[in-house]
């Protein structure tokens, strides 16, 4: 039986290396390399979806320059941080300590965005408190799910303009054996969501929890992606 292939990720900088070492060759941190198995099934699944969502090339003269790809979220400070508003087909990481109000912030912008866009809010931790914020809209859909495959099926069925994932540490791919929140799961799930955003033109907001050290809980690879 062939030995399962594995790679090592640095939890500080997200660097990937085929061999273990006491010190990360990229950032120099000690004892931060963790081993994760690389499943052939996961690669095939991701690759198949990537081909299905691959964007089609167009002559530059045919590009519609009049279309506004950046749109306001309804919250001035957030628009400022995003450089003037959210960008269609982008993936935005919303990081912060547990309980700081990341979900509340996302629900607040849902109230404004749902006036002109269809939103799918994926909650893997708790039911969104939309009633407390007065968010009532037929364009806001809520899905309580942690399996990425089921989330992608719901996206294909509902065809939202905006997808909010709360949080990335609760999502998992069933083709990977590692638990949700691990380096491999966060990396694979984020890559799938990024391909979804680019391939379908969906604006994706991903919530990520921050640990006591001020880093995204789990791998730093999420910040780099």
3D structure, described in words:
The protein has 225 residues and is α/β, with parallel strands linked by helices. It has seven helices and ten strands. The chain has helices at 40-52, 76-81, 102-113, 130-133, 148-158, 183-200, 221-224; strands at residues 6-10, 16-17, 33-37, 70-71, 86-87, 91-96, 119-123, 140-143, 162-166, 203-209. The protein has a five-stranded parallel beta sheet, sandwiched between helices. The two termini are 34 Å apart.
Largest sheet, strands/sense/barrel: 5 strands, parallel
Supply Rg.
Answer: 18 Å
- The percentage helix is 25-40%
| Model regions low in confidence, pLDDT < 50 over at least 5 residues | 40-52
Quote the beta fraction.
Answer: 15-25%
Would you count the extended β strands for me? 10
Individual helix count: 7
Mean pLDDT across all amino acids: 81
The first-to-last residue Cα distance is 34 Å
Rough outline: globular
| Backbone structural class | alpha/beta
Briefly characterize the structure:
Helices cover 30% and strands 19% of the residues.
């Amino acid at each position: 039986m062939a030995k399962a292939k594995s790679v090592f990720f640095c939890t500080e900088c997200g660097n990937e290396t085929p061999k273990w070492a006491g010190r990360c060759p990229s950032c120099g941190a000690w004892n931060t390399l963790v081993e994760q198995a690389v499943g052939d099934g996961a690669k095939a699944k991701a690759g198949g979806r990537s081909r299905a969502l691959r964007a089609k090339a167009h002559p530059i003269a045919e590009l519609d320059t009049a279309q506004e790809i950046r749109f306001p979220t309804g919250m001035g400070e957030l628009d400022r941080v995003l450089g003037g508003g959210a960008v269609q087909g982008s993936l935005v990481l919303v990081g912060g300590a547990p309980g700081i109000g990341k979900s509340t912030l996302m629900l607040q912008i849902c109230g404004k965005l749902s006036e002109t866009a269809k939103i799918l809010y994926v909650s893997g931790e708790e039911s969104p408190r939309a009633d407390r914020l007065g968010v009532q809209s037929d364009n806001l859909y809520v899905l309580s799910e942690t399996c990425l495959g089921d989330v992608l099926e719901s996206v294909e069925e509902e065809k939202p303009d905006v997808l909010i994932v709360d949080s990335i540490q609760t999502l998992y791919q069933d083709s990977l054996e590692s638990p949700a929140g691990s380096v491999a799961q966060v990396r694979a799930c984020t890559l799938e969501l990024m391909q979804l955003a680019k391939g379908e033109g969906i604006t994706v907001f991903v919530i990520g929890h921050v640990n006591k050290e001020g880093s995204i809980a789990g791998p730093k690879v999420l910040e780099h992606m």
